[in-house]
């Protein structure tokens, strides 16, 4: 099965006029994401659910909607994987990874036919300033996913955690779990799992961000939190996230965290869901 690429999306052209992050940030992401604890933890969690939920057939089609520099897409071995991103700069890094099937386009108006993919991944995309309407994007996700197909989302949590890092990566909004659940269900999906994650680091992150807001230091400037991490610290942080991943896979839902992870399924055609 090949994902259908339409000549024109039925919603019109590209709806997003802004880049998702500062262009210079893409080079930083590309340099660190293969081994950085945050990226490794998220990829491992997503892949574990993809392997568990893949339909009982070969040649499973997957779209990474907002694939960035291609770190997640490169891990989708064993799947018929496609990528989509609005940024020409991000696509250059995908090309450096020799990733095929990467298209330029908006998550709000995707250049694919209806029912093209068995799974759709969107990791930290809908919250960007470049996504003018997350509801429209979720409706697009629903359109291009096959009936009974899977949606996997990760998004940042809590607007009160907004920091200088969010300004660098052009954050429009950080979500609460109930809010995201309502949006996903409104788009026509059935929630299979939704939980906060990055919970172990939440107290420290909250303390540091509050401290920066109320006790600014002389010479402080707007900068990204994404930097190379000492190998020993990186190993510790990575291990902590992998432990958290295992707890999530065992069915534990965390009551708070820095991120929200959601797994949802597109409703089968002509099936009415009765609460």
Question: What is the element layout, followed by pairings?
Answer:
Blueprint: H1 23-32, H2 37-53, E1 61-65, H3 71-74, E2 80-85, H4 88-96, E3 102-104, E4 117-123, H5 134-144, E5 145-156, H6 164-168, H7 177-186, E6 189-197, H8 202-214, H9 231-249, E7 259-266
Parallel strand pairs: 1-2, 1-4, 2-3, 4-5
Antiparallel strand pairs: 5-7, 6-7
The count of domains is 1
CATH topology: the name is Rossmann fold
Order of helices and strands: HHEHEHEEHEHHEHHE
Mean pLDDT: 83
Spatial sequence of strands, sheet with the most strands: 3-2-1-4-5-7-6
Core attributes:
275 residues; alpha/beta; Rossmann fold; 36% helix
Protein model, in words:
This protein is α/β, with parallel strands linked by helices. It has one domain (23-266): Vaccinia Virus protein VP39 (Rossmann fold, 3-Layer(aba) Sandwich). 36% of the residues lie in helices and 18% in strands. The chain is built from 9 helices and 7 strands, in the order ααβαβαββαβααβααβ. Strands 3-2-1-4-5-7-6 form a 7-stranded mixed sheet, sandwiched between helices. The protein is globular. The two termini are 34 Å apart.
Summed up, what is this model?
The chain has 275 residues and is of the alpha/beta class. The protein contains 9 helices and 7 strands, in the order ααβαβαββαβααβααβ.
């Amino acid at each position: 099965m090949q994902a259908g690429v339409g000549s024109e999306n039925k919603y019109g052209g590209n709806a997003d006029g802004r880049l998702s992050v500062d262009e210079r940030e893409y080079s930083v992401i590309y340099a660190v994401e293969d081994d950085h604890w945050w990226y490794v933890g998220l990829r491992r969690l997503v892949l574990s659910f993809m392997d568990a939920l893949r339909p009982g057939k070969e040649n499973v089609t997957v779209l990474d909607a907002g694939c960035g520099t291609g770190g997640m897409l490169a891990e989708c071995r064993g799947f018929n994987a496609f990528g989509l991103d609005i940024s020409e700069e991000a696509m250059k890094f995908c090309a450096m990874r020799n990733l095929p099937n990467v298209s330029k386009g908006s998550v709000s108006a995707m250049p694919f036919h209806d029912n093209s993919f068995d799974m759709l991944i969107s990791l930290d995309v809908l919250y960007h300033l470049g996504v003018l309407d997350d509801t429209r994007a979720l409706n697009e996700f629903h359109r291009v996913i096959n009936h009974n197909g899977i949606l996997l989302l990760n998004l940042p949590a809590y607007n009160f955690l907004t920091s200088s890092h969010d300004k660098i990566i052009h954050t429009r909004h950080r979500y609460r779990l109930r809010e995201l659940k309502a949006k996903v269900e409104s788009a026509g999906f059935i929630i299979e799992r939704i939980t906060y994650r990055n919970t172990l680091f939440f107290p420290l992150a909250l303390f540091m961000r509050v401290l920066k807001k109320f006790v600014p230091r002389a010479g402080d400037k707007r900068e990204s939190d994404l930097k190379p991490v000492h190998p020993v610290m990186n190993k510790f942080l990575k291990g902590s996230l992998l432990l958290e991943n295992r707890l999530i896979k065992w069915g534990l839902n965390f009551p708070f965290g820095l991120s929200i992870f959601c797994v949802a399924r597109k409703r089968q055609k002509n099936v009415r869901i009765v609460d």
